[in-house]
Amino acid sequence: MLKDLATMGIVAPGTRPEAFELKRFEGALPLPTRAAVETFLEARAQMMDALPGIEPMGAAAGPFAFGLSDQIVQGLQVAHRLDSAASRQLAGTVEAQEHVH
Cβ atoms within 10 A of the Cβ of 73, count? Predict the structure, then answer.
């Protein structure tokens, strides 16, 4: 998980957790069937077609993406993309103004 967070730029590469405990509960997370995943993907494709530019989060992001930590990471990813897009737009505006003068 830390490797994924480092790849997204959320933590520095090589970051190590101070404490970590993996808990597994038998039967706590039902595994989706192939049919359920296909149905989900079809419904998601319809949603994406109907709402271009939407950022699916939580359960809409995927069959296993509904935990709080998933949603925090998704929110950070969206914020990063929006910040990057705003920075590119601002840079383009400044560049356009420089060519005018």
Answer: 19
Domain boundaries, the chain: 32-101
Residue type, 87: S
- CA 92 → CA 79, 87, 99, distances in Å? 20, 9, 11
Q: Cα–chain-centroid distance for residue 56?
A: 8
Cα distance between residue 100 and residue 23, in whole Å: 60
Q: Extract the tokens encoding 73.
A: 């990471």
The distance from CA 4 to its chain's CA centroid, rounded to whole angstroms, is 11
* Percentage of residues of the chain with pLDDT beyond 70: 85
- Full DSSP string of 14-27: T---SS------TT
62 pLDDT above the threshold of 70 = yes
